[in-house]
Amino acid sequence: MSNAMNDQEIRKGDSGTVKSAKEVLSGKSKKGWLARLMPFMGPAFIASVAYMDPGNFATNIQGGAQFGLELLWVIVASNLMAMLLQTLSAKLGIATGRNLAEHCRDNYPKWMVWGMWTIAELVAIATDLAEFLGAALGFYLLFGMPLLWAGILTAVITFLILGLERYGFRPLEAVITSMIGVVAASYLIEMFLVKPDFGNVLYHAVTPSFSSVESVLVATGILGATVMPHAIYLHSALTQDRIVVKNPQMQQKLFHYEIIDVVVAMGAASLINMAMLIMAAVTFYQTGMTHIGTIEEAHRTLEPLLGRASQYIFGISLLASGLSSSSVGTMAGQVIMQGFLHRHIAPWLRRLVTIVPSLLVIASGLDPTRTLVISQVVLSFGLPFAIIPLIQFTQRRDIMGTLVNKPITTFLASVCAVLIISLNFFLLYQLAFGS
What we know:
Layout: H1 7-26, H2 33-37, H3 43-48, H4 54-67, H5 72-96, H6 100-107, H7 110-143, H8 147-162, H9 169-194, H10 198-205, H11 213-226, H12 229-240, H13 248-283, H14 295-306, H15 308-341, H16 347-364, H17 368-382, H18 384-394, H19 397-400, H20 407-433
Helix pairs in contact: 4-11, 4-13, 4-17, 5-11, 5-12, 5-13, 5-18, 6-15, 7-8, 7-15, 7-16, 7-17, 8-15, 8-16, 9-13, 9-15, 11-17, 11-20, 12-15, 12-18, 14-15, 18-20
């Protein structure tokens, strides 16, 4: 993470991990398979936080409550796209030692770089808004704390988490992964409580359908909350100088381990997202409570349906999601700023700047959950400006060397881009001309 700390600091704080990784890549390690894998696990878990942040809570709860299991397939499709795109992003950092934003700055005209940076910053603001609001809601739901004070507390804890960067990438990865574990455990318990019909779940996981314009809007929000632009920028930065190898064969091995990291991390994120929607579908939609469309309502109404403990489980998972994703969002914003403009802004200053729109939303009395959903739609419209350059760069042999995309990889990634852009235009058409 050269954008967060210099290379000397990384080596000092994580020399053991780097040494173990290079022993594995060179074939000198005598450890077991799992022990050999561990030095490479981490970057995808940080990036995966973006795939289960408070925006996901908002879109999945709204989607499940209003449409039951109908939109479950959107989560499955979105996460499959995410696995492919995050793999390409990680590969770009491994092969070139530079992140996606830096490649955009180096390869596009200056006017285009400024335009792409502007769009990326707007997306980052929407991201921070969702994550900041989510953590504040978590404090509010658990402790009855006023949202304004909850927001301030969120900022303080975010500063503390980001402060772990000075000790290397491992402590930060450990804290973020632990928070993901809290979210996963919470929804494992929720799934045990709601006891869904897994046959019906499987059917809707593989059967595409839309029933209304509103379902398209929520589906686009789910897509934006799942395949997130800032995570694509961030992942290339997380791998660009984490474990540096120049030998083509060792790069290939490193990339194969990174694929495992992505599949495990994104697979977990997919299951958590599915559990969110299933919980809302079984608890609210199937009991006729289709009006449940906000996080606060979901939290409050869980008690008579599932018992008091479920309220706290839900609140804890939201809080862990908000705090971890808020920290990751700040990291991504820094990568975007430095990559496009080659200018550094201290993380604490960036956090102060992004607090302002969130506090304005809180002070204005806008519905936090609806604001979260709309912010995820904004993210979806920012996706092409991250995905298209990613595909362009990873298919160029002069940039990627031996890690250049195979034709089938470029084709599949292009299909993802077309599907995402098409869904966005379909949404615009339905909103403009649909009944």
